[in-house]
User: Fold this.
Amino acid sequence: MIFKSHKLLTEHLKKKVKSSETIGFVPTMGALHQGHISLMKAAISQCDQLVVSIFVNPTQFDNKKDLEKYPRTINNDIKLIQKFITTDQLTIYAPEVKDVYGKQTVAKTYRYDGLEHVMEGANRPGHFNGVGTILEFLFKVIDPDQAFFGEKDFQQLQIVKKLVAQQKWHIKIIGCPIEREPHGLAMSSRNERLSPEARKKAQFIYTSLKLAKIYFQQHSIKKTQKLVEALFKKEPGFELEYFTIASEETLKPVVRKYKKHHYRGFIVAYLEGVRLIDNIAL
Ligand code: PAF
Assistant:
């Protein structure tokens, strides 16, 4: 069933889901692709019921144009979900902005122990306040046992884990591997905005991450960073916003390698004016 009202959604879930059953939740902003479907498949393999939300959350966009251009394909989204998930296990929540925010579309302020100050937090002011606000609302009205997030937005995943721990909510946050297009581009709703040539060319982002991973085994952080920057300088059409090597846990950029620490390379680059994001475990 599909709901536009959170009140009706909560009532429906209270009736539909037995106390012995578990709810898996996949929050999305629509324009669904196989990456989202893989999250839904993971959720339904681990839980009895699946709730999917489809909502382009205005408060997490720091750029008005980006919000306007964000693809909205609700009818196709619903068809795609129903192709993979049986309807008796599925509930969809696809509200209008008013149902979520009421009269004032504003975000609350959150502190995530510093995780919010780096990378996406530094480059997109207010973004993680918007993410926190919508997830607090959705978790409240859905009351899931588990919620599933893609590792493409690795910083978001760590921030959601932090939020849930800080608030002592009983929700297990599950990170799922990045799904990629055949050439290696990380799947994203934004890929729709690329021309077919650019979509193929964008594989360069993942290629450079894989090269960085190999290079990192033998070289310093600084040298690996320089390598990626040099690769992007030579590649026409791309504008590198950042390539950062950071600790997986704190997300703080690192300057020296230590044994037994887990590092990740995080990248954001523009192609045809589209902001593309990816990361790799180093
Ligand atoms: O990752 C996303 O698509 C969004 O940030 C989320 C988690 C659905 C919140 O709007």
User: Anything to note?
Assistant: Residues 127-142 form the longest helix (16 residues).
